[in-house]
């Protein structure tokens, strides 16, 4: 129970999606919020390193991805705006794609 | 330094319990990353690409290392805090937790205990509504098996208490329970694979 909620923080980020929130009781949300706060506090000592990112060893700077949803606009770090529509394919930096791949929005097209 | 970080990361990954904190190495590497990035504007685009990949690799190693440690802390928070407390003040104190990790462990433990109290324990009658330390500590399994590689010749190692001490030669790979070889790891005579 508690460990599941901790995993949510690592998989979904600091704000839980609606589908998960409606299924949590008050004390579970409380646990999540305390866990989140503690983690955020710890990460301030890491000079900007976000431990929930960089979950896979990088093989190349950019990867080929396919979009699995009607996601909309994505603004990259370089300021470029990419339109992510259903089945669109893109060649994007790994750091941009990684969280979206984890959330199921993008799919890495194997090398 | 990168080679060293790789070694440190694998050791931490494979061992069943926290190794000594190598926070300084991590901090140093990350600082180097930052200074390399600051020089990007002066470098050619090709060089930038190569360096960027390098930096992402270093960042991955550092995050993976810190994550592994954090997950171990979460599993064995009370054990780690007790161990650190017992060491405090000693001259040769080997501090497993970095200062930030110590705070994390303490807060995590406190949140966890409070949660148990608020959800279950307070509804129970005395004397069942307190957590006894001996009952709630989850100790790491120091007897789990690990593979290790020998870095230098060592004589008379008691790898298994039921057998006679063996001589280990540089370059060999062995498997053993973690506890008997833990000191050799601390001394740098072996590393985990």
Description:
- The complex is a heterodimer of chains A (111) and B (193).
- Chain A has helices at residues 2-12, 18-21, 26-43, 94-102, and strands at residues 62-67, 72-75, 81-84, 89-93, 106-108.
- By secondary structure, chain A is an alpha+beta fold.
- Chain B has helices spanning 2-14, 23-38, 45-75, 77-87, 99-119, 133-136, 178-186, and strands at 145-150, 154-157, 166-168, 173-177, 190-192.
- The model of chain B has no long low-confidence stretch (mean pLDDT 79).
- Chain B starts with a helix and ends with a strand.
- Chain B has a 3-stranded antiparallel β-sheet with strand order 4-1-5. In chain B, strands 2-3 form a two-stranded antiparallel ribbon.
- Chain A binds chain B through residues 2, 6, 27, 30-31, 34-35, 38-39, 41-42, 45-47, 49-51, 53-58, 60-61, 94-95, and chain B through 27, 30-31, 34, 49, 52-53, 56-57, 59-60, 62-64, 66-67, 70, 74, 99-101, 103-104, 107-108, 111-112, 115, 118-119.
Highlighted features:
heterodimer; A: 111 residues; alpha+beta; three-stranded antiparallel beta sheet; two-stranded antiparallel sheet; 38% helix; B: 193 residues; 5 strands
Topology:
The complex is a heterodimer of chains A (111) and B (193).
Chain A: H1 2-12, H2 18-21, H3 26-43, E1 62-67, E2 72-75, E3 81-84, E4 89-93, H4 94-102, E5 106-108
Antiparallel strand pairs in A: 1-4, 1-5, 2-3
Chain B: H1 2-14, H2 23-38, H3 45-75, H4 77-87, H5 99-119, H6 133-136, E1 145-150, E2 154-157, E3 166-168, E4 173-177, H7 178-186, E5 190-192
Helix pairs in contact in B: 1-3, 2-3, 4-5
């Amino acid at each position: 129970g508690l460990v599941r909620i901790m995993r949510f923080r690592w998989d979904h980020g600091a704000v839980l999606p609606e589908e998960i929130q409606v299924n949590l009781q008050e004390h579970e949300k409380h646990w999540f919020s305390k866990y989140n706060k503690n983690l955020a506090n710890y990460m301030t000592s890491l000079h900007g390193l976000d431990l929930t990112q960089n979950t896979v060893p990088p093989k190349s700077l950019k990867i080929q991805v396919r979009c699995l949803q009607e996601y909309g606009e994505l603004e990259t770090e370089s300021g470029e705006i990419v339109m992510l529509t259903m089945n669109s394919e893109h060649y994007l930096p790994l750091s941009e794609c990684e969280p979206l791949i984890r959330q199921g929005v993008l799919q890495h097209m194997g090398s | 330094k990168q080679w060293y970080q790789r070694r440190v990361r694998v050791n931490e990954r494979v061992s069943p319990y926290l190794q000594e904190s190598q926070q300084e190495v991590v901090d140093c590497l990350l600082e180097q990353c930052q200074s390399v990035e600051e020089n990007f504007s002066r470098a050619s685009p090709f060089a930038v690409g190569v360096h960027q990949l390098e930096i992402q690799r270093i960042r991955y190693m550092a995050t993976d290392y810190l994550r592994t440690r954090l997950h171990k802390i979460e599993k064995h928070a009370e054990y780690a805090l007790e161990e650190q407390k017992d060491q405090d003040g000693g001259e040769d104190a080997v501090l497993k937790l970095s200062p930030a990790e110590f705070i994390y462990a303490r807060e995590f433990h406190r949140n966890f205990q409070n949660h148990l109290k608020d959800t279950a324990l307070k509804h129970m009658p005395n004397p069942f509504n307190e957590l006894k330390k001996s009952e709630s500590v989850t100790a790491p399994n120091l007897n789990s098996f690990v593979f290790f590689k020998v870095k230098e010749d060592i004589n008379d190692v008691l790898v298994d208490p039921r057998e006679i001490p063996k001589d280990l030669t540089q370059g060999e790979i062995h498997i053993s329970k973690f506890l008997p070889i833990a000191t050799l790891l601390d001394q740098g005579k072996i590393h985990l694979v």
